[in-house]
Amino acid sequence: MVWVARWLGLHWQAPTVFCAVQSRFLNPDPANTYTLENGLVTLCATSNRSAGVTIEIFIPSGALTEPIPGCSSVLEEWLWRGAGALDSRGLEDALDDLGVQRESEVSVDGLLLSFACLPEDLAATLGIAADLVLRPHLETSDFKPVLAQAMAALEGLQDAPDSLLFTALSETYFVSPHGRSPFGTIKGLAKLTSRSVKADFKRRCTPHGSLIAASGQLEGDQFAALIEESFGAWRGEIIPEPAVQTRAGFQQHIQFDSAQTQIGLIYPVPALDAPGYYESRIMLEVLSGSQSNRLFEAVREQRGLAYSVSASTGYGRGYGTLEVYAATAPARASETLEVLREELTRLAAGITNDEFNRAQIGILTSLALFEEAPSARAAAMIRDTRLLGRVRPLEEIRAAIQAVTLETVNAWLHDYSLERPGVVTLGSAALE
Amino acid sequence: MWSRLGQPRSSKLRQVFLHKQLANGLTIIAESWPDAHSIALGAFIKSGARDDALGGSAHFLEHLCFKGQLGQSAQQVNAAFDAIGARVDAFTTQELTAYSAATLPQFQTDLLEKLTGLLRPALRPDDINVERLVILEELAMYRDDPSSVLFDAAQASFYQSHPLGRSVLGTQASLEQIDSGVLKSYLHDWYAPNRLTIVACGRVDWDALVAEGSKLTADWQPSIVQRQYPPLTPSTEGQHLTLSAARAQAALLMPGFAGNDPRCVTASVLAQIIGDANSRLYWALVDDGLCDEASLEHTSEDGSGAFYGSVSTDADDLPEALERYRSVLRDVQENGVTANELSRTKKKLEVSLALRFETPASRLLTLAEDWLALGEYRSVADLLEEVQSVTLETVGALLATRPFDQPCITTLEPVQR
After folding, report:
1. A82 contacts chain B (CB < 8 A)
2. Which H, E and C letters describe chain A, residue by residue?
3. Which of A150, A151, A228, A231 is the most buried (most CB within 10 A)?
């Protein structure tokens, strides 16, 4: 169900029952945010359907603003090597003693720390999370193994040709740092020292632009009080983010010893808060989201050109991208690329009424299924708040999808150009 | 909802297990969640790569099931699922073939009709020829993934000629031999109602499910084919692969315990202590930067089981990584695990069980797998009880069988691209 996960992850942000009427929340429903004096924003969605609590902590220390490529991922790994009163192993044991599930991930935008725990362990879990964010040891003796891990992760990309392709696609498409790979570069990693990464931690691990969201079985007042207690003393500066700059209409081949040729196309699409966003959402469903989607039909069902063929969207502040992907035998790569381009170009002629209806049903059903999964809401609230400055209520998204018509989608497709993609191919031979 | 751990406040309504076997052998089971907002439905066939002597037929047929029945195109099949907001997830393993989807409860009957419709494909030669190209690309995709190449080789070495050593996808040669005759025969033998279980979870209309299931499969005939269980003598001789890759890797396979063996839960807990996050292997191999991955899992199959270990490191460091890996296994086998390690791991599993089944869709597969493996229902409370029943004594008894004495080790030596 990769499709569902990806779709939900990127598009869905709709808590149904926010911490309604909580005195600490300045604007309880629908804004549901509470901002600490230090600039940290907290978000909370209560759901009695959940057996636990999911906590997401976003810190704007991603590749976008890093001083040296790879700095963010080294820092992420280093944070887990001891914090507060606990050493590296003590930290892991303490979380395991509570049965807390956790993971962390660096993206171009920031560092995301995720935790899931039982309701009664919320305070203890937040305490450990605060140690990680505010009081990591960052011992110099741990720096070498941490750097080795980052090097191994970067090297490991060479064993995943699809990841290499997407990395190259983003790096080429964005002129600004928005296309940087969170894995960094060999050169960048080689330049890092424990001192430089520590200095970066002090500067970029800041409450300004950071967000803490929780969803599940918790009370808003209790959560806000816990956040005040654990994160109230956090101080830091505002980290400016560069403006987005992209290029269009490029084509590039990367020579790579592999059985398949990887093909990626990238197009701009409306940002989450831009006119045409919901029309583009229907377009994505027709192109690649639904089971009867056009790319699957044209590339796989009719021609047997590829096993993997898909399109997905990604969003950042002020921009959106549509990435189209297929992998096939070198001898059939040119034909596959041609079919992909044709399908995108063909969208300008519009979609059919049947396609529109199926897309709308698909999105609305996914919305309803998402509503049943409170644990996914914390991450969705983070995304909405970062990109829109607010959390969209479920009803708003539902109404927006219902307000889109075949006519508005086709008018948008007619006016919106999907004809000049950036193209990257990766494989044993360049395409003709 | 289940047990004292992590109980949702809203679940005042009891979950109920329902079960019915039809005259043609078809089994229908459901875990009914009266307060759910959705229904997840699946058709699970107790047949997979191990039942497919040619290699690749079970998986090939799974692809062909989406091409439509007589008089129906693939496009029509897919559009029909879209019309009820359902997207089918299908997969083939050694043990089973599954087709499942989730949607709103009002579409239960539609979804059941479309899922059972998938299981009676037309198997047109033109569709087979196009799909063969698609599966050859799937094979090529895995050839570009060093971990997949390694594990296929490791499995083939460990199981030798035993059916569990077969590749799910088959080989280029076996795929060339698959035609409509082969697929029709496989369909007839294995997609018979007595090999099929319809599994539902969520807001289920049980009476309608049974009535519709009976109607839709009224003319389906049971099959007499039986799964074969040849004796398994796992090999201890692995292979050495040389491959265009960046990282050196190794796979270590060791005999484990079957799904119906009570020791399989202890084996899973033990594997977590040794090779999950914050495990023996992590602290011995990953913490100091020698390896970027070192793990151990236990998998139970029908009639057997295995411990699967893996390690990934720099090309030059593989011998040391393997030495440390084996030393961890030896130490656990000789000295056992500590009470702290055991209680911590049990707590992790208990919380995971309490949190992971949030939606009907997230519960469906476990429900189906337990039924197919054991022929009986396992509630989440039962699963928790099984975890709680693991003790230092059960771990000790398992280690006394000396499972880690002779791992079958397959290595992958990277060659610069």
Report:
1. no
2. CHHHHHHHHHHCCCCCCECCCCCCCCCCCCCCEEECCCCCEEEEEECCCCCCEEEEEEECCCHHHCCCCCHHHHHHHHHCCCECCECHHHHHHHHHHCCCEEEEEECCCCEEEEEEECHHHHHHHHHHHHHHHHCECCCHHHHHHHHHHHHHHHHHHHHCHHHHHHHHHHHHHECCHHHCCCCCCHHHHHHCCHHHHHHHHHHHCCCCCCEEEEEECCCHHHHHHHHHHHHCCCCCCCCCCCCCCECCCCEEEEECCCCCEEEEEEEEECCCCCCCHHHHHHHHHHHHHCCCCHHHHHHHHCCCCCCCEEEEEEEECCEEEEEEEEEECHHHHHHHHHHHHHHHHHHHHCCCHHHHHHHHHHHHHHHHHHHCCHHHHHHHHHHHHHHHCCCCCHHHHHHHHHHCCHHHHHHHHHHCCCCCCEEEEEECCCCC
3. A150
